[in-house]
Transcriptional regulator, AraC family
Amino acid sequence: MKIHFIKINTVPGELLIATEVKERKFSAPLHYHPELELTLILESSGKRFIGDSIQNFEPDDLVLVGENLPHFWRNDSNLLKDGFSRAIVVQFNKSFLGESFFTLNGANHINRLIKNSTRGVCFRDPITKALIKDKLIRLLELDTFEKALGLLEILNILAKSDICYLSSPEYKAHFNEIDCTRLNKVFNYVYNNINSSFEISEIADLLNMSVSAFCHYFKKRTQKTFMQFINETRIGKAKRLLIETDKSIAEIAYESGYNSLSNFNKQFNSLEKLSPKLFRKKYYDYANDLPDVPEHLEYDS
């Protein structure tokens, strides 16, 4: 995988690009571009990489990625044979309405959202996501002018909503093409072998580096150690299994790459601040308490 910088091929006269992506698995590797990107997952699940953030994603995941922030979505390996990965993706330049539009009085909240997106932000309120989903689906059918107005309306809603930052404040995007090619190799290897044990030397060999050079390189590029990344990835898989299956904690620990149940419990508690058993209970308690979301919503500004 060689992609690092992606040039968004805009149609002459278009202010933004809104598309529905439908693939067997999301194919874009780790990449960045100067356009902002709003992504809503319609179908599929897996792991989302935004800067130095590594989190699970599932249907209705809604994220705004800022300019030049490296990102990609990696599907679960157990994607159903007859299933598809679908998302609505809107890409736009922050000056799509003019260089100074969002600095004007009345638009400062959107300007603040755009600045916050440099770390990547996600939106978790179910009512907000349902409203935005409806508007994004309609956006796909609009002409250029109405599409710009539709995006402005969406940004207005999101700018008034609660956000969750994704990348850490210390994260600085300073990848080059070689970095992205190397990191894609690392990510793919880890994902293909996440439920088995492997040595750091195996990863270092992939990049023709010594173990010490690889560990230094990975920490410098991702702002975390390689073992932190491994544990976050394994615990992310474990969380999905806790939510989606009724397998025992011991089975989930083994399938997530841990040969020791005590070590799995220790790593899970370190990252999530609660035990796997309590995580599963709290998730189901929360899911059962969620209110029904109306099929069609209108935003009262």
Summary: Residues 16-165 form a domain with the Jelly Rolls fold (CATH 2.60.120.280). Residues 1-5, 290-301 have pLDDT under 50 and may be disordered.
